């Protein structure tokens, strides 16, 4: 990076062969990983690959990104569209479930592909980018829907857009008088921190309205030095940062791991927002934590960390009811 904050990056690992060559899976696991890759995309950035300890079979970073043959087994209750966005889509790329806020999904690519992803049936490197005409229609929907006071960019990951394209979208949304705030949900600051450069931070200012960024991270070790520097560029650029996590078996399913995660967030000026219960997407059963256990873990955090570091434990209601606090 020209600013010298990020080490020189190697290629992103996108195939079972590349994972094996990098030593992230043993030779005997390549065929199984390749079978998973025919259905669900693989992407491990060089930055994330360096965070993984290949000698640790329980590595909490590896567990989030390294494919497992179990992904091809759909358990009872797992559905292709656990959040049921379909009925709430007024135009392609928009999801409008709450009166005051709506999602814009300009693309479906992500820097990494999480093995527990609730949108795994739709996200991926190919396809899913709105055409210019579709994007124009989606932005026009925001412009003619005055009840919407917050535009939330998600996907996929909106930080995968070029700074120029992202800036143009934010400028147009921000110019609508009824849009008061904007929000972007992203995994880029922890998955590919070098992308958060001066041009991207400047693009966020193009909205001319307050822009919040919600960062998806699930383990303290994701807050590496380059990730914390990327988050600092955003925070110093005047962007309030929120943290979003998913409660995941084998990643953050202990009070110590959750405490470590939220402490890493607040050290990086990220205010914990949601802890999501796992949505039952196909092939994700190995990550499931029972609700009662999740509630007890969150209760255990209370008193151990500052009150403002407490995330709200929520689940997406099946059938499109929106996010609801999880109770034991
Ligand atoms: C999660 C979600 C939002 C944002 O909800 P907040 O509770 O404000 O974070 C907005 N629209 C849809 C459709 C969502 O699923
Ligand atoms: S970054 Fe988000 S949308 Fe992309 S694969 Fe991970 S969970 Fe899914």
Strand and helix layout:
Layout: H1 16-21, H2 30-37, H3 46-51, H4 62-65, E1 94-98, E2 101-104, H5 132-143, E3 150-153, H6 163-174, E4 181-186, H7 188-191, H8 198-205, E5 211-216, H9 225-236, E6 241-246, H10 255-267, E7 270-276, H11 291-301, E8 312-317, E9 322-325
Parallel strand pairs: 2-3, 3-4, 4-5, 5-6, 6-7, 7-8
Antiparallel strand pairs: 1-2, 8-9
Helix pairs in contact: 6-8
Residues 95, 97-98, 101, 103, 152, 323 line the site of pyridoxal-5'-phosphate.
Would you state the CATH class of the largest domain?
Alpha Beta
Ions, cofactors and other bound molecules:
pyridoxal-5'-phosphate, iron/sulfur cluster
End-to-end CA span:
47 Å
Task: List the total number of helices.
Answer: 11
In terms of quaternary structure, the protein is single chain
Mean pLDDT: 94
H/E element sequence: HHHHEEHEHEHHEHEHEHEE
The number of domains is 2
Largest sheet: 9 strands, mixed
């Amino acid at each position: 990076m020209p600013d010298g904050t990020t080490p020189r990056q190697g290629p992103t690992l996108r195939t079972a062969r590349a994972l094996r060559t990098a030593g992230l899976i043993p030779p005997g696991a390549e065929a199984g990983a390749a079978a998973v890759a025919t259905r669900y995309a693989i992407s491990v950035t060089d930055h994330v690959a360096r965070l993984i300890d290949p000698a640790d079979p329980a590595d909490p970073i590896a567990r989030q990104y390294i494919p497992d043959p179990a992904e091809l087994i759909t358990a009872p209750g797992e559905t292709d569209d656990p959040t049921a966005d379909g009925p709430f889509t007024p135009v392609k790329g928009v999801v409008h479930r709450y009166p005051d806020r709506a999602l814009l999904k300009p693309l479906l690519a992500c820097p990494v592909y999480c093995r527990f992803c609730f949108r795994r049936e739709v996200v991926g490197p190919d396809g899913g980018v709105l055409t210019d005409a579709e994007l124009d229609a989606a932005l026009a929907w925001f412009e003619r829907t005055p009840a919407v006071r917050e535009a939330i960019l998600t996907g996929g990951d909106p930080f995968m857009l070029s700074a120029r394209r992202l800036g143009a979208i934010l400028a147009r949304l921000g110019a609508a008088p009824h849009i008061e705030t904007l929000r972007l949900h992203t995994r880029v600051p922890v998955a590919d921190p070098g992308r958060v450069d001066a041009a991207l931070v400047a693009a966020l200012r193009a909205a001319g309205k307050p822009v919040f960024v919600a960062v998806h991270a699930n383990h303290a070790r994701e807050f590496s030095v380059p990730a914390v520097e990327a988050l600092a560029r955003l925070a110093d650029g005047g962007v309030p940062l929120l943290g979003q996590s998913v409660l995941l078996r084998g990643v953050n399913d202990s009070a110590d791991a959750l405490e470590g995660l939220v402490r890493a967030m607040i050290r990086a000026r990220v205010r914990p927002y949601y802890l999501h219960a796992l949505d039952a997407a196909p092939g994700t059963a190995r990550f499931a934590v029972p609700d009662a256990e999740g509630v007890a873990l969150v209760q255990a955090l209370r008193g151990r960390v500052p009150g403002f570091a407490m995330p709200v434990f929520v689940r997406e209601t099946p059938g499109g009811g929106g996010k609801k606090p999880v109770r034991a």
